[in-house]
## 1
Amino acid sequence: MNSATEKKLDPDQINVILATDCGSTTTKAILIEKVNGEYRQTYRGEAPTTVEEPAADVTVGVVNAVTEVGELAGRKLIDENDEIIRPAQGDVGCDIYISTSSAGGGLQMMVAGVVREMSAASAKRAALGAGAIVMDTICSNDKRLPHEQIQRIRELRPDMILLAGGTDGGTQKHVVQLAELIAPAKPQPRFGGTYKMPIIYAGNQEATELVEEAFDEDVKLTTVANVRPVLEQENLAPARDAIHDLFLEHVMAHAPGYNKLISWADAPIMPTPGAVGNILQTIAERQGINALGVDIGGATTDVFSVFDGTFNRTVSANLGMSYSISNVCASATLPMILRWVHLNMDPRALQNHIKNKMIRPTTIPQTREALVFEQAVAREALRLAYIQHKEFATTLKGVQQQRTVGDTFSQETSGQSIVDNMKLNLLVGSGGVLSHAPNMQQTAAMMIDAFEPEGMTVLAKDSIFMMPHLGVLAQVHPAAALQVFERDCLIYLGTCIAPRGFYKAGKTCFEYKITGKTLNESGEMVCGDMRLFPLGDDEWASVSVEPRRGYDFGAGSGKRVEFKARGGTVGLILDARGRPLMVPADESRHLAELNSWVEELKLYPEVT
Amino acid sequence: MTQAYSPGLQVRRQTLHSSRRILPIPGDVLVKVGEQVTAQQIVAQTFMPGDVTPINVANQISVAPAEVPGCMLFQEGDEVQVGDLLARSKGIFGFFKSETKAKTAGTIESISHVTGQVILRGAPLPIQVRAYQAGIIKEVIPGQGVVIESQVTFLQGILGIGGEAYGKIQFACQIKDQPLTEDLLDESIKGKIVIGGARMTGTAVKRGIELGAAAIVSGGIDDEDLKEILGYDLGVAVTGSEHLGTTLIITEGFGDIAMADRTFNLLKEREGAEAAVNGTTQIRAGVLRPEIVIPLDISMTSDSSAEDVEVTSGLLETGVPVRIIRDPYFGLLGEVGEMPTELRTLESGSQSRVLEVILDSGEKVIVPRANVELIEG
């Protein structure tokens, strides 16, 4: 399938690693070198992704990004034939080359299931977990007429379709009915006129033959284990694996230049989100914590979460900072974006500015005003993507809850979101606007405003958007991936401490006492206050907070809590703006508060 | 680094251009290699499978799904007309029979004994492909379509609304920085490709649509105007299927922005010529730009089209003409000066690789490399 999988690599002989990530907008390249016996990330470069005309070959962008890295590193990485030089000899070439990709718009899928909240939800989770964008969900109860569903399949031209439905041994009729709807639609693939649309069947195993009968030779049907074999259980791995295989074999191979890229790489090319998900799961598992990760890109924003060991991933297609920036503004509305802007700006000019960024997505902000506005848009993109994630990452729907006498007054039903900001331990930000923010305070502020962490949450960022590279490197050289991850990738920004409870103008929110080696402070936080205390990397402080009634740090309303807070490049942030975060309705008051936050966090210092 | 890659828009006086005109599904090619075709000539056609109507016969005649094949009065492959009796239940002792009639005409594609569902497929839908570019048929791809080739003047815009349109080029604005307003338009623009200068106003676009202009091309448009014309906010730059009646193309961007000199002058040279335009735009992976294709008469073509042959696509280096595509210098034109290798700190605080642009006014400004676009020609 992939020539790269057959290459044998001796980890001890690997001293220079070249990795690229072909994003929808830019192709990033990094160099990892063995320095004094340790693997360190040393240089990086980037160039526009080139799946489009006139290049129409993804490897052109790779060569450009790698050339930049080579120039910065003083190492010749590309030969006269525009190919990567291997193995490394002196200051020429590299030992291995690996890549991830979300170019070509990523993997775009449709899922179909009998009931939206059950089998269709499980199918969607499997597709998202595999790194796909789910374009639409077809199900028996989606309130569309059959011909409308068929028309939708025809219009969307997904890369593949995942069909699920029925528990094993349960009803067959409905899932066969869905197959009978998909078959006559004769879905056409996006790339390549010759390849057959892959359809994965992951439903009632007893209906397999009947489903096979419904399809003819126009599609490539693959059957895997049921994603929901019984109501109370999901089995997503076989469907995810099948999606990955078919993605590599069919979809990626038909995108411009991918065959060449596949032949260059020393390990199978992974979809970027799949690689980032791998890394986040590793962090949560190793540290035994609940973690949330976000990767904000040009076209999409991916949110990953691990709560109590359960991994979920969502892709918010059309919430991004370049191609989709206009959609963020349309979804969030301009007033919602402007609530994060402390400078005077002309709305008409801003609207044109947004559209100009949409049509020329690779540009970067040169002025302070442009940066402030772009970071305001990012907050809304992140916030909207997080709402979508919370709605999706739920307990299994349709499963009866076991109740005891103690639950008598609990109204909890099935399908509750498992994402709980109070239980969140680590929040990791990645993607251009977060990774490349000129100062770390800006990254921390964007994440706090968008995700509204409650209780105590450690904030970190992917230093230079390296998580995808390391996700794939972990597959071929786990030791190198781990070393680079710990030393160069994850930058701890510090800790945010904030209570749950509504903003009440002028009222005290909580009292605090901080005790540490270098930091000893105490005081009172009034609603709307933000305070930043310097607490260096590898430093820890004891923080005791005593909330007023109506505010909760996790122990209950008004109850005192003690935290052990971790420092970082930003420090310790106390946030008394209330949760859910609301800004004052009065414009002048809001602007005054906004300016006080900007000043306190030193968000936009003058550049000399 | 003295060179870098940067995408740009093509503006070419004379180039050998080819259009690949392919059917979405296999069909018949109606022309031969070497044949001269006009822009609006149909070169290939096919029929798409008709619309599908699922009918739940089991429910309609109150029988079990397994009994449906036995109750059908037509078989798979049979054609049915509206009102034809599709199925009849066997009833009880031959009485109380239920029936169902076809509400749409079509061919019976399948009869399911599992779901009791009958799939009826409507009449095939014809799909035709026009030549779009007047020229010679260079290649016939059997069953799929053709490749047409000719010497053309070729210009790319930055964003378009609406699909393919044809007409003669007619100027409404006489200078490149004159806004296209409604008072500049009259009945003479019917069926024409109207060229403006700077921003096309919302009222001018509405007037153009009323008067039946085939297309309007100008430097910019205001976002608020576009929203009003479309009736919705454009979320992502994926367009082409809008049905305004007139195709719109902006060559520079959003706001009050004049058409680039080179683009305006080139269009001026071809005033009165028959052209084809396509507003279809997809600014994401697999980018598609709106375009204006103006075939050249043989008398106008020169043998040496060296200026096109020598162009190295996407290469940014000292001396090449560029357009700045981000504030604070948005829309300004110039040429690349120095290209320092080291990173510079911008006013925003970000570090970036930059280049010097020598503006047409002679002023030198420093901008991030990502914020310029090549003017390819």
## 2
Amino acid sequence: MANSEQEVLSGLAELINEETGLPTDQVELDKSFTDDLDIDSLSMMTIVVNAEEKFGVKIPDDNVKDLRTVRDAVDFIVKQG
Amino acid sequence: MSESTSVVITGVGATTPLGGDAPSTWDALTKGVSGASLLPYEWVERFELPVKIGATLAVEPDQVLTRQEVKRNDRSSQMSLIAAREAWADASRAAELEVDRERLGVVVASGIGGVTTLLDAYDILLEKGARRVLPLTVPMLMPNGPAATVGLEFGAHAGVHTTVSACASGSEAIAAGVEMIRSGRADVVIAGGTEASIHPLPVSGFAAMRAMSTRNDEPQRASRPYDKGRDGFVLGEGAGIVVLESEAHARARGAHVYAAVAGVGITSDGYHITAPEPEGKYVSQAIGFALRDAGLEPSDIVHINAHATSTPVGDIAEINAIRAALGSAADGAAVSATKSMTGHTLGAAGAIETIATVLALKNRLAPPTINLDDPDDDLTLDVVRVDPRALPEGDIAALNNSFGFGGHNVVLVLRSV
């Protein structure tokens, strides 16, 4: 199942909103998960696990630490899809 | 007792089936309102539970907490956070509560812990596999989770503790907080209890032991301590938290003081895992210890918030124990069984009832015991019925009794200031 960049971005924004309450329009490609969106490692793991189900992909734990920005995550998921 | 080891209550907070805070809960208690209703959960029918009633929170936690606070805390922790914030703000009412965080302790009890988190996580494990189990599952299900949440919120460094003694847990937490201050480990302790166990598994378990009322067609009349028609408790949920402070600390900052926790009495039955020791010997002893600790005489006690869960055996055993401990002075005490209104909130009960007792002393008003239509023939004490009763002016004192499965007996003596 292929996911477009826009679909993944808006889908991730929904997952982040669900986990943290952050408005979806604040989830932009160049934002850092930790510095800009204030998402800690526990929330990140929850978002990753939910993203795996939502987009039908696998995001191994070893790759999660490389997902620093929203763009990193979107690219990873688009490639996997 | 010196001011440095005398312990006072300077703030109260609660979220209960009667109200989202302590004042609304107190208001409902004095008006004789029941918090029980038909349980609004589909699992009641799905599992064909014999018990279809309970006392759920009056105000849902997601109405007062942020989404993240709700997601990251078990319901029991959510409730402890709400009650602790209210208690802290209340303690800051007359004068800002400032305390060296290395002298701030926390004791928050739970009888059962994060049971909903635990069982929901198990469902996810079975249905979706280990990968889908949330990373916060363990800190959310651990029984010290609510205490940890409160400790984190207020940056407490003098120790964060959890007492787990079934339905005596909430009172035992306050007793433990008193000891922290008396021993010099803390100036201020946030103490109380919380419970969120209205889940099909605990309900099934309590129902299996026939401990709960099945008066499903009359939820508000189901919790009826001392009444001939009582048939068990109504399960409730909630949290009660108080701010305990050394009297010296409270006086120095000009705090508003509700009452003193003047005495603590703790004993254990060593008799049976669930049944109370029938003679009430160790309950009576705990009352005696608490009075001695407070330096008071039986005749000083004008009010008792009884444990009184509305089970056929428990209520009268407690009455007999009170009579044994206080003798003829028991006639001078107005007895309230507030579980008739709140339901039985297990690990939170002792804390919620401590707050009820403190507010009774402060307002000079003993709450009623509702549903006492046809008193048990063995009821020998003066139970307040229907309308609240005025308490005397001057220096007065009250008992709060709490007992739990496992034979735990905790008695607190509260004294007006």
## 3
Amino acid sequence: MGSGRLYAAVAAGGFRRYATYRAATVAGVFTNTVFGVILVYTYLALWDEKPHLGGYDQAQAVTYVWLGQCLYATLAIQGGGAEKDLMERIRTGEIAVDLYRPADLQLWWLAGDVGRALFQMLGRGVVPFVFGAVFFPMALPTEAGRWAAFVVTLLLATLVSFAIRYLAALSVFWLMDGMGVNQVLMVTGIFFSGMVLPLNAFPGVFGEIVRVLPWAAQIQMPADVLMGETDPLGAFVFQAAWAVVLLGAGRLMQSAATRRVVVQGG
Amino acid sequence: MWVRSSMTYRASFVVTVFGNLTVTGLDFVGILLMFSQVDSLGGWSLPEVAFLYGLSVTSFGIADLALGSMDVLGARMRDGSFDTLLVRPAPVLAQVGADRFALRRLGRITQGAVVLGWALASVDVDWSAAKVLLVPVMVVSGAAIFSAVFVAGAAFQIYAQDAAEVQNAFTYGGTTLLQYPPSVFGKELVRGVTFMLPLAFVNWVPAAHVLGRPYPIGLPGWAAFASPLVAVACCVLAGLAWRTGLRSYRSTGS
């Protein structure tokens, strides 16, 4: 059980680290709220034009917007979570120290990222969501079961989100610099997670493809479970499958990198 | 120096430029996706929305190229390296602008200009000399207004120290807002963006004139030509705020 306590401590460290920057958190809440308001208005105009787009009514579209703002920092949709530090450590060569630690590299960074996500959720996500619920009509469930299922999808979404970013970070072992990868993370994250438009509303074959990609596990699935648009069990299976595949790929890539790594000196 | 440093990792630079083009292009892809489902948004057609989008993004891109590094300011104040800029014999604002100057930001301007070009070719407008002249005036005044927002945000950071994101709400939030027709938003919001933070003069007001639409809160017709004046006023105010902020700056001492 000793190692369990270690990762709990790393997670707590991740939480505390982000909790330190209070002004930044308040600023983030403000930004997410402003963007939420802009998006809500555009969505309302869109749903005015075409009611039931993507199977949502207006209240559901509004709920989707505020959920997106709530999860934006939590799931590091555009990057900027643990993977950013990991890339920096690989670039500078400090990763060598991490590899000597008597802890699993992937679990170590996962624990830190979970702590970060939890803080971002509580510190930064909840307020815009509540603001949205107070000032705009939302479609929130009343039964506890659905909220419980929603919490499970959030946990699984956190895993998938980390798994994607961990893979991206490890690529720096070969690329040497993370700037380009960060951009790719940002593009794919914002677009395929459905920050631009709910994935349900993507048209045609393109929409069908987008809805089976791992990014769909991040906002679309939790939203659909919360609003009762999909069967929770199906959502869990979808998310868990992607988590297993991506975390497994991360593990393979990690052993490939550490086996023949050339640590950058400095 | 910052240009050369970004060229060191060539593969990464190429990916970055490409990525930057795509990141900024994504908003427009989002708009295209919306229009794949509907014929108009808030009563505006796709070419009309593209016109707003192109103007907003091009203006913002120019301001961002010159002053987009303002959000590094908070970090520089926290770690104390801002003091270095103060003792150098060059204007602080120019130094902050050049800090982490990134050529990849050209991606945004390019992308905005392409959309604007397409919009100009596709909107159904009865062009007059005044309307033609108004387009470049909008881009330049818009860039000046956004620059003023960047500088005012930087001045605010001197007080707030750790709140770069508040600035993002106004800069990135502002440009996102202006990409959609004013008819989409609530009256209060439109009024706020016209009179409090006059972002509406970047494109909404003059573009309404070009496209022959009445401005939603009933501004007089000449308001369409007021953008340059608004831009000058914004720059003066932002400059004053910056100087006041600079004078009250206290180093963290680290």
